Amino acid sequence: IITYILLAGYPPFYGDDETQLFEKIMNAQYDFEDECWDDVSDLAKDFIRHLLVKNPDERYTAEQALNHSWITSAAPDKALNIHQRLSQYNISRKEPQQRVSDSDG
Fold it and tell me: Is 58 exposed, middle or buried (0-12, 13-18, 19+ CB in 10 A)?
């Protein structure tokens, strides 16, 4: 989950309400559809696919993860604009909370 957030700037699971969110978490439903994933390597996506697996018997162990090609290969000189996406995500999360606070007062 942390790797997904670091690469995309937002969490892999989201929903319109808690029920939908928990359903996606429990079923490990996530995607790489957002345009931010266009700049992320297939190896990085493969790494995430092996970790965000519902069945723990099929999920990578720590040793397997550390030996994955994405971890062991040299990093490319490509900027992913992660800081900007994280900032945008945090702002979008705070906006609904701010609207609730404003309507209470």
Answer: exposed
pLDDT attached to residue 88: 77
As a whole number of angstroms, the distance between CA 84 and CA 87 comes to 5
The two most distant CA atoms of the chain are separated, in Å, by 54
Task: Please give the residue that has the higher pLDDT: either 70 or 103.
Answer: 70
Single-letter amino acid code for the residue at 73: S
Q: Are 6 and 82 in contact (CB under 8 A)?
A: yes
Predicted model pTM: 0.71
Q: What percent of the chain has pLDDT over 70?
A: 81
Question: Minimal CA–CA distance to 58: which of 14, 28, 30?
Answer: 28
**Single-letter residue type at 56:** P
